[in-house]
What does this fold into?
Amino acid sequence: MSEIKNKAFWQEKAQRTEFPNQIIINGEFKSSVTGETFPCVSPIDGRVLTNIPACNQADVELAVTAARNAFESGCWSELPPGVRKSKLLKFADLIQKHGDELALLETLDMGKPIGDSLAVDIPATVRCIRWNAEAVDKIYDEVAPTSPKELGLVTRDPLGVVAAIVPWNFPLIMAAWKIGPALATGNSVILKPSEKSPLTALKLGELALEAGIPAGVFNVITGLGKEAGEPLATHMDIDGLVFTGSTAVGKHLLALGAQSNMKRTFVECGGKSPNIVFPDAPDLDTAAKASAVGIFFNQGEVCTAGSRLLVHNSIKKEFVEKVINAAKTMQPGDPLDPETSLGAMVDKAQMQRVLSYIETGKSGGATLSCGGVQALEKTGGFYIEPTVFDNVDNKMTIAQEEIFGPVLSVIGFDTEEEAIAIANDTDYGLAAALWTTDLARAHRVSRKLRAGSVWVNYYDAGDMTAPFGGFKQSGNGRDKSLHALEKYTELKATWMNLDY
It folds into this structure.
């Protein structure tokens, strides 16, 4: 094992790390206007890493003014797409160059295993910025079919000032999904990370300046949702608001955006995704391992987590045993150990929330088959063992509400029609999966599942070329792919009289 993959290497590096703790407005590193801060606590061991500016309305005003002035100046918005592309490619290169540092900040800040930060979060972030940079100078506007006496042009203009509020479970990737297309299309951006995971967002702001993105074009503020997030949602001079997080907060932001200036508001929210296993699944061992990873990856703090496992009753007993065996190989460990596959919950409050759902499942009549308890208490961190509930009824709380933790609900079914009905019996519609070797069934069931992403014979697949988003209360709009660029632009029709 090379040094860079060694647990001792990352532990020693963590002790030497300097943590970013200033916001970035108009290209300047600042404290909050009031000077107030809040502690940034590592869920690994409960220690305070640094203190982060607690921004409020006054800081938002400064950020919006900077973003608006930058947009109106044309220093970014009026650059040729190819020039913006070159700056964003340099930005992506810098993210890759600082990959180890960013991965460590991500792990220390929100508790995910360092191996996942290195193998998943950093490459995906770099890929997203590069992909949007490469795409933006390859998209053509349109000429309407008109008479020779007229010219109809169909073009897209940048929205203007975009506020991006991103969650704590994938801080880097979710930020990239927003700022990549927003910056590529010429907007000025204000990024507000979750107060639970602000460190990598602050580092991104620093790297954007180093890449040559002009001052005021990319601003980063930090703070609580009420004090810093809501002022962004209600601000009359913000043209677009994009958000990833809970459905409850998404609904609130949609209302605030409408009540203020009807700003374009796009929210990607929760999920309670069904993972359906038919008796003719191609390989039950593979499906069981994928089902375990589908719920326990990132500690279950994944909006697309396969939290409802629907298994045909003819194979349920055998299959659940395989899933439990896979879960036993994913026990919580030190997130700074590259061999760890399950890290810490993001904070104590989230750990307690998940544990309360586990108690609800036990009292509600489900069978606790494994896990269900806090782990590694002596570390001072916030860990939960992977948990499997069997004999779950889809009407139970644990089957209907998003837990956002390593908790799996197993539900049996007898017919294809019953599986589809159970899968769709939820307020959410973010993702779904099915396992079958019957090609007709694969097409038939995937068409009937009310979800923005459907996977067949694997779980949580896709890349930057495919759109991501949900049906129903999982949100609106799409991240990734060329469709994401539509969110950050307005469609304009220009009609010219040539007969004069």
Notes: The first strand starts at residue 23 and ends at 25. The mean pLDDT is 97. The chain has 16 helices and 23 strands.
